[in-house]
Amino acid sequence: MPWKSALYVCLACFCILAASCRQDSRPVRDEAKDDSGAKAMLQGIWVDCESEDVAFKVTGDSVYYPDATSLPSYFRIKADTLIIGTPPSHYPIMKQTPNVFWFRNQTGDVVRLRKSDDPNVALAFLHKRPVPLAVTEVVKRDTVVMYRGDRYHCYVAINPTKYKVIRKTYNDDGVEVDNIYYDNIIHVSVFRGAQRLYSRDFRKAMFAHLVPRRFLAQAVLNNVEYDHVDADGFHFSATLCIPDAASCYMLDAVISFAGDMRLEVIDY
Predict the structure, then answer these.
(1) Whole-structure pTM value
(2) Residue 204: its pLDDT value, please?
(3) Long-range contacts of 253-258 (CB under 8 A, 24+ apart)
């Protein structure tokens, strides 16, 4: 075979292989499309068939909850599955008609809902936006400490902020929802007479090297308070807690007489 012909054959093979690679590298699309008919039937306010408690309201692509601390969630319906939130939670649909909606929640229980036409039920959704739970007033503590003949002042101020913390939890129907809270910034100062030994704002990010990241993301800096003094310095108990849960980390913040500070976990 002449060398030019062989070159053409090689180039043709190369182009075929390149085109094949390009096709194989394309992302695989999810063939299952949103069920627009099922989404249309879900529009409206839904209540529990037994308790008559309001479960949620569906408007457009969003699910709204009667709890004033819960954020609205984006939803889809695909292949007989209700998909809510980011990252998504999946709930198999057991039965759906224009006025009946049954699905299986995270624990495997079947939630039975019916569409409500009672205008009073809409009052549960009068709040226009979720209201975060937070401390609304500055809390100040001033403690006088005597140690080895010297007089010290330990000062703590808990300052509410507008920094939102999102905590994932489950409502009464076993549906995962995002509740919002406000974090705190807590100022700590130590004085010997008029001399300032230490002054700093405590934020939850400063505990990132001691607390798991997933815990820290949903926690608030709940409190810092003076505990005791010894040869190492002034000990302050700091607590990081997930709101409305029993999960907390307690840390010891030790401020030395030289004005240095170290942290360690003492309980969780």
Answers:
(1) 0.66
(2) 93
(3) 253/188, 253/202, 253/224, 255/188, 255/190, 255/197, 255/198, 256/232, 257/197, 257/233, 258/197
Residue 163 is predicted with a pLDDT of 86
pLDDT tens for residues 206-221? 999 999 998 999 999 9
Across 27-62, b (16+ Cβ under 10 Å) vs e yields: eeeeeeeebeebbebbebbbbeeeeeebbbbbeeee
Q: Half-sphere exposure (CA, 13 Å, Cβ side) for 190? A: 25
Q: Is pLDDT at 102 greater than 90 in this prediction?
A: yes
Contact criterion met (CB below 8 Å) for 156 and 224: yes
DSSP letter for 130, please: -
What span, in angstroms and rounded, lies between the C-alpha atoms of 189 and 55? 47
DSSP H helical ranges for the chain = 3-24, 36-42, 213-218
Q: What is the mean pLDDT of residues 7-23?
A: 45
Distance in angstroms (rounded) separating the CA atoms of residues 88 and 75: 9
